[in-house]
């Protein structure tokens, strides 16, 4: 294989690095050789009510399966993100909120103001009956109140479950019911790219399917007309009148749950990934500082949505724990025009920018001019997350956006991992476009073959993590058995990531993508089984099989094979109906790119759908279908090839 393109650490970065190459080796070496003392020392970066004396206590073996970190410690996550900064950073800006429409006003909150807002929000929640351990669903647009809501839950020990505002009422209802959440926090509506998202109306529809729901707290964000149901719905601004501006922070065990976040897997409905308090906060705070070389006074912008793990870990918890000034953006990168994101960088003098390859590819398609007409001189570090970054997008980010000055920090991680797992540290690692390079302290990645043999040296296979780390998820809500089965049964004693990876001769990791039936659409996970279940709910559909296929901007697009019930006529109209149906069932992120009507699907004689073949046909790569002789009816394949959707 040709020598990969390499961008060595610049002289300037060698000088300014918080952790240089040697420093990384020492740090990483200690974290693996002596995790107990390493992590107890790291734990000092948090403010503990009771400092822990135990670090990790875990076993991935079935007989003794358990994962705990700092179990004897007590802390409050919100107090770590707010109160402890008040003495030294009370007047520092915590949140700069940039509205969807550049003509609207920016809102800023100092740490002192954030304290007041979060305390008030917490008191409103208490006033509505929310108690420690209760689940609170948050279905919000990207407004500061979304961050207040998360932190207010953390302050009183309630467990938040954020549902992305792009999910449909059905998807929202499923998530409310799964975690038995009696409370929803929402807004009248949200704004995105000049359009209104009817959040409250969606909650009303979800409520019909979620009898467990008792109270809906509604933030007035847009003034949109909504109906309020007596006894159930409460305006936040009314409830907040007269509540106290101080609310004591609940003393929580390090292992008390902080939040649930639903994510898609290869089978079944989305899983409620549970993260706890101490280890998660330590992990997000440490990785935020290391990966982005975060320094006091930096303006930091993570352009994700709070509805995803990236928003939880790197808009709210990690950066606020570090006392950062965080930009929170309501809109999308390319509205009103494709210069918007760079204009926001200049407007707020952003030093660190963190975004997704899919956004870069969309912007790249509009050329360099929208970038070049802005300054971007404030930028120092550029991060990326969510999917493999193709070298073209990487180079564009590096050369055009960063003017060749800013290291690109390609962070590989997952909802399950809580925070960054493999990523270069600026100033420590040479960069290679497409490689996430090296593990974070305490992360012990291994590459295995299909039989579970550990491959050494340069190798390609399945990526597992051999040791627990503080930010690891602790369970699947209400289904601990599923937690074990999903992540620890494939390769006994190891956490299986469901990603493939390659390690090159330098020891750098390259993530090759999911090896299960999860599709990565614009950096968002979508289970093929979820889309299939939505399709077969339609009265015309007998059977569906969904696969991913490469998409220039989104990374992957959704391609659905649909077998209709007998007597139903295939038509373009029906195709449009089914696309809309899936959007209504799940949300716009699940929109199928293509629907192919198939009289039948390729199955083995035992009835198993051969997805490998369906993937090839969707990709238009029919030259190497492999062995089709085991199919029950090999002729099916010819029909599918002839009718493939370009
Ligand atoms: O396949 C990997 C991909 O995104 C998956 C995790 O998705 P999710 O839980 O939604 O979290 C996204 C934000 C962390 C992974 O299994 N992925 C994430 N980051 C990268 C990536 N693939 C390649 N390179 C990355 N930097």
Automatic annotation (TrEMBL):
Signal peptide bounds: none
Ranges for domain Acetyl-coenzyme A synthetase N-terminal: 24-81
Sites where the protein binds ATP: 386-388, 410-415, 499, 514, 525
EC number(s) reported in the record: 6.2.1.1
Pfam families: ACAS_N, AMP-binding, AMP-binding_C
Function of the protein: Catalyzes the conversion of acetate into acetyl-CoA (AcCoA), an essential intermediate at the junction of anabolic and catabolic pathways. AcsA undergoes a two-step reaction. In the first half reaction, AcsA combines acetate with ATP to form acetyl-adenylate (AcAMP) intermediate. In the second half reaction, it can then transfer the acetyl group from AcAMP to the sulfhydryl group of CoA, forming the product AcCoA.
Protein name: Acetyl-coenzyme A synthetase
Organism this protein belongs to: Stakelama pacifica
Upper taxonomic lineage: Bacteria, Pseudomonadati, Pseudomonadota, Alphaproteobacteria, Sphingomonadales
């Amino acid at each position: 294989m040709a020598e990969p393109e390499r961008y060595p650490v610049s002289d300037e970065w060698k000088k300014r690095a918080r952790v240089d190459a040697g420093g990384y080796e020492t740090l990483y070496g200690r974290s693996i050789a002596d995790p107990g003392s390493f992590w107890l020392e790291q734990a000092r970066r948090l403010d503990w009510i009771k400092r822990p004396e135990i670090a990790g206590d875990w076993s991935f073996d079935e007989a003794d399966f358990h994962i705990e970190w700092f179990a004897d410690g007590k802390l409050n996550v919100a107090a770590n993100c707010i109160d402890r900064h008040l003495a030294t950073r009370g007047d520092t800006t915590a949140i700069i909120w940039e509205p969807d429409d550049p003509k609207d006003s920016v809102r800023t909150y100092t740490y002192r103001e954030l304290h007041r807002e979060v305390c008030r929000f917490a008191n409103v929640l208490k006033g509505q009956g929310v108690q420690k351990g209760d689940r609170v669903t948050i279905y919000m647009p990207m407004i500061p109140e979304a961050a207040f809501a998360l932190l207010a839950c953390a302050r009183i020990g309630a467990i938040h479950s954020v549902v992305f505002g792009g999910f449909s009422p059905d998807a929202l209802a499923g998530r409310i019911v799964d975690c038995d959440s009696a409370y929803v926090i929402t807004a009248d509506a949200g704004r995105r790219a000049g359009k209104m998202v009817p959040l409250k109306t969606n909650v009303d529809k979800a409520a019909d399917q979620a009898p467990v729901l008792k109270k809906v707290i509604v933030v007035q964000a847009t003034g949109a007309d909504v109906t309020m149901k007596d006894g159930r719905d409460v305006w936040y601004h009314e409830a907040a009148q007269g509540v106290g501006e101080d609310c004591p922070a609940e003393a929580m065990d390090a292992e008390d749950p902080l939040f649930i976040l639903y994510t898609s897997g290869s089978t079944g409905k989305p899983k409620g990934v549970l993260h706890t308090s101490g280890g998660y906060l330590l992990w997000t705070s440490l990785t935020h500082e290391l990966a982005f070389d975060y320094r006091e006074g930096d303006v930091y912008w993570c352009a994700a949505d709070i509805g995803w793990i990236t928003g939880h870990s790197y808009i709210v918890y990690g950066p606020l724990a570090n006392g950062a000034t965080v930009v929170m953006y309501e809109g999308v990168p390319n509205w009103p025009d494709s210069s918007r994101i760079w204009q926001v960088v200049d407007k707020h003098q952003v030093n660190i920018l963190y975004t997704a390859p899919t956004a870069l590819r969309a912007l790249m398609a509009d050329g360099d001019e929208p970038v070049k007409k802005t300054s971007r001189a404030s930028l120092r570090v550029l991060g990326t997350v969510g999917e493999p970054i193709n070298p073209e997008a990487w180079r564009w980010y590096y050369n055009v956006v960063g003017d060749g000055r800013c290291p690109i920090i390609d962070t590989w991680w997952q909802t399950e991992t809580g925070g960054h797992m493999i990523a270069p540290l600026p100033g420590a690692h040479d960069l290679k476009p497409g490689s996430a390079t090296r593990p974070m302290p305490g992360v012990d990645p291994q590459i295995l073959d299909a039989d579970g043999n550990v491959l050494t040296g340069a190798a390609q296979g399945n990526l597992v993590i051999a040791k627990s780390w503080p930010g690891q998820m602790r369970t699947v809500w209400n289904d601990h058995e599923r937690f074990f089965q999903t992540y620890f049964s494939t390769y006994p004693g190891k956490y299986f990531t469901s990603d493939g990876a390659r390690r090159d001769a330098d020891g750098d990791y390259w993530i090759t993508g999911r090896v299960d039936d999860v599709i990565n659409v614009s950096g968002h996970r979508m289970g093929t089984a979820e889309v299939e279940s939505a399709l077969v709910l339609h009265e015309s559909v007998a059977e569906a099989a969904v696969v991913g296929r490469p998409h220039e901007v989104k990374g992957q697009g959704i391609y659905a094979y649909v077998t209709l019930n007998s007597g139903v006529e295939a038509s373009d109209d029906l195709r449009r109906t089914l696309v809309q149906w899936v959007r209504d069932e799940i949300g716009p992120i699940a929109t199928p790119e293509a629907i192919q009507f198939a009289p039948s699907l390729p199955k083995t004689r035992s009835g198993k759908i051969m997805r490998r073949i369906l993937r090839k046909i969707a990709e238009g790569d029919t030259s190497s279908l492999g062995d089709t002789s085991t199919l029950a009816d090999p002729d099916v394949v010819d029909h599918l090839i002839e009718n493939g959707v370009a």
